[in-house]
């Protein structure tokens, strides 16, 4: 993965159906290729995007050049919605991990829709409340979870985004992550040093919680990893 959470706790709220239908009925469609950048932190916030298909990576980069991956997003999530409300610049980088199609709506069009249908402000408020709750959950995870819990959370997020359930042995619940992931990717997702990720993964490989199949990580015991995120 070109630097590769959020899932399970998504930092970017899905758009309520009523608001989605009103805003994106005549949206301008945009296609991105894999690894193509949608926008970077500091760009003008001229509108927002609704993910129709594909997957996007949301990340920030520190002054020292270290990347922190905030989320991996798929349909029907909204990206860039805060700029619609405050008009400020983008706060993160967004890049396509796979070919993606997005619907774009400008800030002026957004304002026009809400002027015509003020009841939709209730939907906007609900969306922002959900985002705040999810942000709080993510903050708790990165603040209080032990290192193993943070790496487990990152792997489970990748399982949600790229996972393929394996049929053998039946009922085992094995999930193959169909995306190349490096230890640096996992470190960027978990917010810890790569050396710690390496140590944790080596232990999990030895204990059979995860495995490697043709270069892909496979979550052998999802429930065991989920338990680590509850500490």
Compact description:
With 231 residues, the chain is an alpha+beta fold. Helices cover 40% and strands 24% of the residues. The protein is built from 8 helices and 12 strands.
Strands in their spatial order, largest beta sheet: 1-8-3-6
Please mark out the parts with pLDDT under 50 across 5 or more consecutive residues, or reply none: 1-13
User: Based on CA inertia axes, which overall geometry fits?
Assistant: elongated
- Give the N-to-C terminal Cα separation: 28 Å
The Rg value, from CA coordinates, equals 19 Å
Determine the strand fraction and express it as a percent band: 15-25%
How many strand units? 12
Question: What kind of sheet is the major sheet?
Answer: 4 strands, antiparallel
Order of helices and strands: HEEEEEEHEEHHHEEHHEEH
Count of DSSP helices?
Answer: 8
Question: How helical, in percent, are the residues?
Answer: 25-40%
Structural class: alpha+beta
Quick check: average pLDDT? 85
